[in-house]
Amino acid sequence: MLDFERPIRELEDRIAELHRLAGESEGLQAEISRLEDALEAAKRRIYTNLSPYQRVQVARHPERPNFRAYRDALTEDFYELSGDRLYGDDAAVRGGIARLKHGGRAVILLGHDKGSDVKSRVRGNFGMAHPEGYRKVRRLYELAGRFGLPIVALVDTPGAFSGRGAEERGQAWAISGDLMALAEVPVPVVSLVIGEGGSGGALAMCLADYVGMLENSYLSVIAPEACASIIFRDSSRAEEAAAALKLTARDLKEHGIVDEVLPEPLGGAHRDPEAVLATVGEALERVLDGLSGADSDALVEARHDRYRSIGAHVGRPA
Amino acid sequence: MLDFERPIRELEDRIAELHRLAGESEGLQAEISRLEDALEAAKRRIYTNLSPYQRVQVARHPERPNFRAYRDALTEDFYELSGDRLYGDDAAVRGGIARLKHGGRAVILLGHDKGSDVKSRVRGNFGMAHPEGYRKVRRLYELAGRFGLPIVALVDTPGAFSGRGAEERGQAWAISGDLMALAEVPVPVVSLVIGEGGSGGALAMCLADYVGMLENSYLSVIAPEACASIIFRDSSRAEEAAAALKLTARDLKEHGIVDEVLPEPLGGAHRDPEAVLATVGEALERVLDGLSGADSDALVEARHDRYRSIGAHVGRPA
Amino acid sequence: MRSWLSKRRNYARTVPETESGVGQIDVSVFTRCKKCRQPVYERDMRARFNVCPNCEFHYPLPARERVRLLTDKGTFEERDADLVSGDPLRFEGYAERAAKARKKTGLGDAVVIGIGEIGGRRAALAVMDFDFIGGSMGSVVGEKVARAIEHAREENLPLVVVSASGGARMFEGVYSLMQMAKTSVALARYRKGSQPYVSVLTDPTFGGVTASFATAADVILAEPGARVGFAGARVIEQTTKEKLPEGFQTAEFQLEHGMVDRIVHRLALKADLERLLGLLS
Amino acid sequence: MRSWLSKRRNYARTVPETESGVGQIDVSVFTRCKKCRQPVYERDMRARFNVCPNCEFHYPLPARERVRLLTDKGTFEERDADLVSGDPLRFEGYAERAAKARKKTGLGDAVVIGIGEIGGRRAALAVMDFDFIGGSMGSVVGEKVARAIEHAREENLPLVVVSASGGARMFEGVYSLMQMAKTSVALARYRKGSQPYVSVLTDPTFGGVTASFATAADVILAEPGARVGFAGARVIEQTTKEKLPEGFQTAEFQLEHGMVDRIVHRLALKADLERLLGLLS
Ligand SMILES: [Zn+2]
Ligand SMILES: [Zn+2]
Questions:
Q1: Which of A18, A48, C78, D141: CA 20 to 30 A from C215?
Q2: Are residues A66 and A114 in contact, defined by beta-carbon separation less than 8 angstroms?
Q3: How far apart are CA C193 and CA B300, in angstroms?
Q4: What tens digit of pLDDT does each residue of D194-215 get?
Q5: What pLDDT does residue A299 have?
Q6: What is the pLDDT of residues D135-156, one digit of tens each?
Q7: Which pLDDT belongs to residue C28?
Q8: To 10 degrees, the CA torsion angle through C159, C160, C166, C167?
Q9: Surface-to-core class of residue B256, CB atoms within 10 Å of its CB (0-12 exposed, 13-18 middle, 19+ buried)
């Protein structure tokens, strides 16, 4: 449970309590329904006004549907491919050839895998890739180009990993390689930020023809906590930093960085996974339909123009 | 000194001895000139009839001019490039952009570096590359293609390295990658076997439009010693194995595997390095002149046809 | 185990019906699995394509059995079966060795190629046979693999190559080495198209085969426990005097090191290929 | 050291003649090298482009000084000098911070771009300045680097980019992140041509700059001792509680790990670039 959800949880507990006491008797029904109204009101009040930092917390929610949920729900078949052919296979990112249920299209599906239990979370380094992961992803981008399959990337990472091995094996070089590959790949590239979109680790999967974000996901150049400690010299000011960074889906849509905000159920994806999975499945089909049949040169050129034009620079009055 | 050179060395010693004894006196001149004739005869007899295994020994001679000698003698400028951008920089192979003295052409020059002293020999693993080396070479092949520079490869390796790290990092995958790159690179590829041409380690540098071999160099699928111990179950039969493998420059020319045998001075390259360096420099210029201006598609197609047609298979009478 | 491995062609299999011309089976014969040391009926081993019913150890599988395992019944048309090796170097003992291998295996050389259907999809197939001089690559293996690649290219088909090889065929010297180049130039042309190349690595695959076509694939599969590498473990230990870790060079090791895509049980291999080809067609 | 690093623009250099509009030098002033702790004359430090005459330690070099170091005298035409950053997120304190940086450095932002000659050969040049908010990459750095790439492409020239950056400019949030994508798409187009892109890594180069254009080059040079990486050593030690080895992330470390082609002393850099461009032209 997240802090700001406490009032809701308390109401839920009291209602359960009263139900127990009431048993068959009618005596407490009035009170119960009063509390139930209060509960609904509280939910709407809290969840519809989530602050940016609260959304970050929702995006990080351990029960939030992650890559595995989408992979299992949205594909008829997922044929996983492994390895960078160079050094290792990084469990933090997974990918392969998939057939989507919605529309039945074959695609290269990949994403950050935060795992489903302690063991797999640790194995996947909580979705933080090593160079092996970025290089596996690059291999998948190249296979997509070779086979003419659209790329669907599900972004959900706290960011690139800060570790010795990652630096020794050229993390920066590997991320740069992914960006160059995405800038050139002659097939549709569709990115969906389903949870955390942390820095370069996320960008290596969202230089795309379409970028969608779930309502409570975020995309940021840096984690709010880190930003607070660097800019405000006080990591406890993460709330402020999150707001200042304009990292929510809505902010990014307003700034024209992403194409679409995909709605989540009240309280976040984890409160009704099926609903989110359906939303994403339909969005994917719609977007892929829109991009299919596009001339590959035109696609790459449009991708170029899209990113080439992002920036907030102004000519200085002479 | 190699075993079979002993008679020569003995004559040389005796002549020197007599010169010392003789001093100014004329007394021993007759004997001296007799021995000098014998020496010339011995040299011609021994060196013109080197057995295949003796040539292998000459090819391995520690004073034989190696990559460094050619690099220094044949180039006006050698701009070395390093690293595979993935894991490391392998000192067993070196390469870069070079301007050749003969003809003044800019090329990508690379080769196995056996080093010049104990330290550099060990550092270069005696010319046996690790996966990092094959991947650095691949990077150079790709740069050559990108810049339209001819590739000049100087082959001098006992073979691929049999080691744990080399296997852990995918030596076979790395060699295969070099072969695929050479099969596709749209620039002239010129290979010269200057010493040892050991197995896959050598082949990764000689899938070429022109393959020349120095008279006493060898190119073999396996070292004669290893072949003897496997096929004859007796490593002391290396002499036999060397003969059976048909690994000398002349054999390979006869079998149409290589294009040219470049002559060495009597006794081998190490007895007159300048002569060999000049021979190679002129051959390079001639060959590059011949290949320059060729259409790149035609080049790649001819390279395909050349290797596609190598084989000794026959249809079985039905 | 050796017993039946060597005698294996004296037995037919009961189910499923065979396409590899072999005789009747003595259902009573059993042997001991060299891996789990349990007694196993030849018949069961045969029915499971040489995978131990008890410990799932994957024993070498003859090329024609592999073809039967992978292709839809009755769809495989073998190509270029008549090719046999010359003896370019007149290498002492090679001619006899080759003749014996042909007799023993009933094959022209260490690879069988052709076109067949896998789950109703046509594909070019090349399958190596370790029993033929250790699956070593000489001129014929190189030529037939190159032709399989070209059949795939000409008919615009997916390419599946199943490798099993001790490496180069020393008897053919540099001709053997050059087969690495030959198959590479053929593959380079094939890869200009957009049909997939799937490589299947089986126990053991080493040397020139691993260092050329077997690893130049879009997708690389390996059988459980298959040892795959360039230099063999014994050679490495002799060279470096280093003790190698448990499981060195196994398929599982290679997966962990990023070198293969998937490890697939032999009895699931056909289904796995059908999935992959289906997704890519 | 700080003393003169911050005051550096109050000094002119004696030799060679400067192109960066700065005033007179007080030849008597000296300082202590923070590396070797020896006293050094400002003037000598200046004449050697901020390389210690005693221990050869490479101190940060202002962008205009770098341009003077690399280009033939009088040949550099600056481009797009008028670009300054907007404040897309209205980020608390950014406007002031940027104004102060502009005042301090005399630059519009953390990069100077233009066309100049290097040994008589024209090349597009982009040089970052660590003194401008830690060389952080915001919209202007991304835009100007992209324009430098485009100038090189339009005029078919070699491209030389000298990086010095602490990483992303947090004040611009996701706009900063997206400059990695912007420079990458520009580079992808440039690389369709056959002109070389040379990246020069100087101390320090980290974060989004290293993870985009700075490492996507044909040839990568680095200055001796320059620290280059994605995450900084302090962050890594905080995250992993691991003690990092001596020399971690230095140019020498990166060379050993295969990430850079050459380590080039600052005073030899121009000659090195002239050699390379000469070989490739
Ligand atoms: Zn068993
Ligand atoms: Zn100093």
A1: C78
A2: yes
A3: 16
A4: 999 999 999 999 999 999 999 9
A5: 98
A6: 999 999 999 999 999 999 999 9
A7: 67
A8: 10
A9: exposed
Rounded to 5 degrees, what angle do the CA atoms B27, B28, B34 make?
A: 135
Span from the CA of C224 to the centroid of ligand 1 (angstroms):
13
Q: What is the pTM of this model?
A: 0.94
- Any C CB within 8 A of B164 CB: yes
Q: What is the rounded CA–CA span in Å between residue C265 and residue C276?
A: 15
Contact B79 D255 (CB under 8 A): no
Distance CA B90, CA B191 (A): 20
Tell me if there are at least 3 CB pairs under 8 Å linking chains B and D.
yes
Helix or strand (DSSP H, E) at B195: strand B189-198
User: CB B73: neighbour CB atoms within 10 A?
Assistant: 16
- C258 Rama sector, left if φ>0, alpha if ψ -120 to 50, beta otherwise: left
Q: What is the pLDDT of residues D31-57, one digit of tens each?
A: 899 999 999 998 999 999 999 999 999
Name the closest ligand to CA D39. 2
Give the pLDDT confidence score for residue C18 in this predicted structure: 28
CB C80 within 8 A of CB C147: yes
Q: Which residues crowd ion ligand 2, with CB under 5 Å?
A: D 33, 35-36, 52, 54-55, 57
Shortest CA distance to D196 belongs to which of A179, B149, B109? B149
What phi and psi values does residue C147 have, to the nearest 5 degrees?
Answer: -70, -40
For the segment D157-183, the average pLDDT, to the nearest whole number, is 97
| Alpha carbons A94 and B208: distance in angstroms, whole number | 38
Q: How many residues in total does chain B contain?
A: 318
Q: What are residue C228's phi and psi, to 5 degrees?
A: -135, 135
Give the Å distance between the CA of D52 and the centre of ligand 2: 5
Whose CA is closest to A314, among D64, D88, D137, D152? Answer: D88
CA–CA dist B217, B276 (Å, integer): 12
What pLDDT shows up at residue A235? 85
Among residues of chain A, what percentage have pLDDT more than 90? 82
Q: What is the pLDDT of residues C111-140, one digit of tens each?
A: 999 999 999 999 999 999 999 999 999 999
Question: ipTM of the assembly?
Answer: 0.94
Question: CA-CA distance, B307 to B286, in Å (whole number)?
Answer: 22
Strand stretches in D134-265, DSSP E = 159-165, 197-205, 219-222, 262-263
pLDDT at D16: 31
3 state SS of B289: helix
